[in-house]
User: Which sequence fits this backbone?
């Protein structure tokens, strides 16, 4: 199946710094990408939907100025957690649908962020 | 709010067949039903997708009644490695996950 790769798989940073997570579709063009966060023992929470070349659509309660999403190409989307704080520590997962998709999503491996 | 409802957890034993049902009363005409499996600290993995009736692949079957207001994921002869959280997802544009079903397979 299609492959989506996330980087880094884990990152530790100090409070107040910014962290960028990359999500790449390796063998298909992803017109739409989704970003999720997941806390321990909980389900995935959709943060935002991004379409290539346009601004991301954020879910209610997600601060767009804090979680910057850029989907500049059909193979790359980035999530930047700005001025990270300990409460931003979480597992972040991206997913992508290809141009012919019927709702099947291809997920990255996830990125675990720990803010000290 | 998620459009799906699943049991929070299920237990089974190795070798048994497991059926997990998902309710999606407000499914739209164009919506597909997709099931994913997630292990701890990993992204979800696609299991199966269907629109109506029955779909079968090498790992599971998906049963969808005529009214499409529910679907049942069937895992034949589960093993310990099938212990995971299973999510059903409905739709094409709305990719919000429900709570999922935590399946525990015991020896």
Assistant:
């Amino acid at each position: 199946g299609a492959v989506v790769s996330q980087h880094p798989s884990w990152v530790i940073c100090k409070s107040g710094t910014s962290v960028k997570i990359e999500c790449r579709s390796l063998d298909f063009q992803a017109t739409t990408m989704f970003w999720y966060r997941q806390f321990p023992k909980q389900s995935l929470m959709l943060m935002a939907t991004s379409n290539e070349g346009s601004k991301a659509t954020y879910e209610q309660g997600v601060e767009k100025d804090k979680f910057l999403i850029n989907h500049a190409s059909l193979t790359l989307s980035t999530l930047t957690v700005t001025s990270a704080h300990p409460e931003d520590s979480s597992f972040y997962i991206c997913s992508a649908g290809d141009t012919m998709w019927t709702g099947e999503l291809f997920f990255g491996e996830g990125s675990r962020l720990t803010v000290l | 709010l998620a459009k799906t409802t699943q049991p929070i957890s299920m237990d089974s034993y190795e070798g048994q067949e497991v059926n997990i049902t998902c309710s999606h009363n407000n499914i739209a005409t164009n919506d597909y039903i997709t099931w994913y499996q997630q292990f701890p600290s990993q992204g979800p993995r696609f299991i199966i997708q269907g629109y109506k009736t029955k779909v079968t692949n090498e790992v599971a079957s998906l049963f969808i009644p005529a009214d499409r207001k529910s679907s049942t994921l069937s895992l034949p002869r589960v093993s310990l490695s099938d212990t995971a959280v299973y999510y059903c997802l409905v739709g094409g544009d709305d990719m919000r996950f429900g709570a999922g079903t935590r399946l525990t397979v015991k020896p």
In short: Chain B is about 0% helix and 45% strand. Residues 11 and 53 of chain B are 26 Å apart (CA to CA).
